[in-house]
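Minutes, structural biology subgroup

Action item carried over from last meeting: produce the structure token record for DHA2 family efflux MFS transporter permease subunit (Pendulispora albinea). EB confirmed the sequence was re-checked against the source entry. Recorded below for completeness.
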Amino acid sequence: MIPGSFLIYLDMTVVNVALPAFREQFGLDLGGLQWIISIYVLAMGVSTPLSGFLADVWGVRTTLVAGLGAFVIGSVLAGLAPGLGVLLAGRAFQGIGGGLASPLASAQLLRAFPPSERGVAFGVFGLVLIVAPATGPLVGGWFVDAGQWRWAFLINIPVGALGVYLSSRHLVDARAKRRPAFDALGALTCTVGCGALLYGSSLAGSLGWGDPATVLFFAIGAACVAVFVPHELWNTKAPLLDLRLYRSGTFASSSSLGHISVVALFGAEFLYPIYLQMLRGLSGVASGAILLPIALGAGLAMPLAGKLYDRVGPRFVVALGYALLVFNSWQMSQLDAATSTRWLVALSAVRGVAIGLTAQSTFASAMSVVAPEAAPRATALITCTRYVVQAMAVPLLATVASTRLSHPIPWAHVHAAAGDTGVLGLCDAMRATTATMDAACTESLRGLSRAYRATCGFAIVGLAVAVFLPGWPGEWPVLQPISRRVARR
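Output recorded by EB:
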């Protein structure tokens, strides 16, 4: 599961630093560049709800392998794309494959490990979810700086093929005892609704929230959700996404915390590379190096978080993670044009530790009340809703960051100031150029500060919710591994 899952989450960020290369290669404007990212998230959001149903029909292993196969095909198309159309088709195939495979990897873990060991299992597996997106900018930056952006996709082929081989040979297959009925209305309203919300979010990032097209697609999404929710709760015996799981307080609070972390953590991740590259003028590799401690911090924290989760429950672990996130987000809101590289690296490391403590602990807590046979539907529900929240958080924070930006950013002057010596950021170039650049830099930094203060607010809400999770200092049913309890008797 690890090779395929690594590729799926790596591709969420690896292309971000390659956008200038795409613009130069295909002559794209901002709208075309945005679609390279949006089509991937859109395809994942549409296909994820179907993964649970297909797993019940085909089996978990077969569906997971099919998803990885589609991802590899998409990587071939994107890596060899002669134009934007083929590139977008490849990204769509990657998204469909990722949407089918990623929820089922977590479902397999739930089946493979007893409750007393799931914290450690999810902690180790969660490294993939953190390391992959965090190393994406570094890998992509290295290929872009070498003039080989196509390898950002082509490198997926051998690793993806290895994932297909290992999954088909070693994963235990499982499917529903009886073939479930297909929830046609649920599938239609969920697919159209998620697609409309995701597409509306992508339009909001480029056209604005009040644009008629944005409002139209959000209205379509809202109408579909208004039909989907009561239908899934009361009108079908085989729901596509089992919303009845939210009747459990633990599942509802834990999954909600996961959604808050998506906004506070991942929703703001796109702001950091913008600050490093566009404002400070760092290269793709240098930016990736500063972002890498996020992965390292998470890599150190996540296995420890898993062990603590098994012993004391989610309350202490998640609350500690959100406390760190409150501190980190506030410090990120104080960034300026002269913030030292050492402090940026330290902030990245703290952010990684916060991710390591919260991301998989909230997921494991939600899944702790789910029966193994319901795992595919539950993971599809959590994953699908997180994609939608993440897709809406990015343009929302982008709007917060760009509000009151009265001066158009004079990128032509920045590039002219850089000349042939390299790339200068807006806040570097302004020191030797015009007052307009000075004002644009100042307002851009203020916008960045507003966005990070907003994520700090979400983190405070998450901390308040986390203290109501089960676990120490209250009771936790699995205080130590079962084997140890048996040994002491």
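Discussion: The chain has two domains: 2-182+238-488, 183-237.
Next step: EB to file the record with the rest of the batch.
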